Amino acid sequence: MNRALRRISIAVLVMFVLLLINVNYLQGFEPASLATKPNNARAFEAQFQYQRGSIVTSDGVTIAESVPSNDVYKFQRKYPHGAEYAPVTGYDTLYSQSGIELYENSVLNGSDSSLTVRNFIDLLTGKPRKGANVTVTINSKAQDAAWNALQSDTGGKPGAVVALDPQNGAILAMASYPSFDPNVLATHNSKQLIAADNALLKQASNPLLNRAINFTWPPGSTFKIVTSSAYLTQNPASTPQTNVNSPTQLKLPQTTHILTNNDGEVCGNGSGQVPLLTAFAQSCDTTFGSLGMTLGGPTLNNFAELFGMNSKTLRIPMPVTPSNYVIPPSQALTAFSAIGQYSDTVTPLQEAMFAASIANGGKLMTPYLVKQVTASDLSTVETTNSTQLSQPVSPTVATDLGQMMLAVVQDSDGTANAYNTGAVGFTMAGKTGTAQNGANNTGLDDAVFTCYAPYDNPQIAVGVIIQGGGYGATAAAPIAVQVIKAYLASLGK
Asked: Among 42, 205, 204, 191, which residue's Cα sits nearest to residue 111?
């Protein structure tokens, strides 16, 4: 009898020990994952009983905060700048989240394991629990300029802007138009939330779509950065002054189609040979179609991927829709892909990455949106360290490409000459794109522009795409100029 009782006692003791271990493990290491599990009613209630952390720009502008509520919950989420920052903050509703609100949820709501000690100290000292603040890399002046230009300068056409710090990959601006006001989704009234959500979903303009990172368009002639990079790398003796074939018409093999320049223009002096720099500045399609056929689809694909295209793993921390380069099945289609047509598609973020790589001496830094996380006691929980994503080109080729992009803006026959130093007050290097896109059903080409500035000491790289905007030089480039001006002014330059 005693032996049986002893065995039962030992078994009960073991179960108690295992239970204690499990409870301590769950409380110490699993709070974040438990908090995010569906149907966790306790977590659902708690998210509105504790003060959620704020989201703040790098220069101190609050773009999401929790304020006292006058209903059954203690706190109400508020977005002081509404639609302008919606692509950054996303939304935090009764049932779902997006943007930074989603991908930094565990630190914002205070359940992340990195905050366990801080939460325990607050518990002992009687302080109310509060989530950590997230500082994003956005510069408010650059963001204001991007958003205002998208609203006022595009004639209501959809589009997006992304600006990067080429030296570290920090995202300085990320604006998408049309956008939505997250405040209408932050209501605690479920009926109002469902009605507001349905109204947004029914809008043909799709305001919930973050066009800066989750929609792609053909790059048009901005892809000539990739084609030129491949050519200069594959031909190390070549320079921007090297003559290349530039026929008035380019007959494409195995087809009756003839590739011509825009409006049948003659590139250079019409001799059939032109310096690479001139062909780039004037954006000669026959030149780059010919180069593309010589280089071949696999080579173009390799360089496109070095610039970040075809990546299915890029996060900022929100997932980024891949920019695509598909190896064409024929030489004729390779010619089209080399000038940014056929099936090439890019996000505005990818456009900014093109310019940032050249501005940074050929190094492409990984784009990121979260600068740091700060606990309620102002201690730093986490700081993002910049990392290199790839090396698309050598420093020598980057210098050559920089000269060619400079010619686009500074040369009298460059496609973006209207924005030379005298006109804008700073020296910019860029590439225009005017992309044919049957998908937009507007009858107009998409306007594309990528650039960096100042040329001698790059501080910012910008990518702009306006759907159905027409010429990149007239619809997209002016927006980039405004963003650059605002950012440089914020730096006191």
From this structure: 42
Residues 52-74 have pLDDT tens digits of: 999 999 999 999 999 998 887 88
Catalytic residues: 221
Task: Give the helix ranges, DSSP H, for 339-385.
Answer: 348-359
Q: How far is CA 423 from CA 402, 426, 481, in A?
A: 20, 8, 10
CB burial class (10 A; 0-12, 13-18, 19+) of residue 162? buried
Q: Quick one: which H or E segment has residue 453? A: strand 446-453
Residue 166 amino acid letter: P
CATH 3.40.710.10 given to domain 220-368+391-490: yes
Q: How much helix, strand and coil, in percent to the nearest 5, is found in the chain? A: 45, 20, 40
Of 424, 420, 430, which is closest to residue 472 (Cα–Cα)? 430
Where b means 16+ CB within 10 Å and e means fewer, 16-33 reads eeeeeeeeeeeeeeebbe
pLDDT tens profile 15-66: 777 777 776 665 555 655 555 554 444 555 556 678 999 999 999 999 999 9
pLDDT (average), residues 402-410: 98
Cβ atoms 354, 325 nearer than 8 A? no
Please answer whether residues 107 and 131 qualify as being in contact, where contact means their C-beta atoms are separated by less than 8 angstroms. yes
Q: 470-491: b or e for each residue (b if 16 or more CB lie within 10 Å)?
A: bbbbbbbbbbbbbbbbbbbebe
Alpha-carbon distance 292 to 305, whole Å? 16
Spatial separation of the C-alpha atoms in residues 62 and 60, rounded to whole Å: 6
- List the chain domain ranges: 220-368+391-490
Rounded to whole angstroms, the Cα distance separating 211 from 349 reads: 9
Task: Determine the Cα–Cα distance for residues 134 and 118; give it in Å rounded to an integer.
Answer: 16
CB burial of residue 181 (10 Å; 0-12, 13-18, 19+): middle
Residue from 96, 44, 102 nearest 73 by CA: 44
Taking the alpha carbons at both ends of the chain, their separation in whole angstroms is: 89
Which 8-state DSSP code applies to residue 254?
T
Which tens digit of pLDDT belongs to each residue from 147-162? 999 999 888 899 999 9
The two three-digit tokens of residue 303, written as one number: 């360089």
pTM above 0.70, yes or no: yes
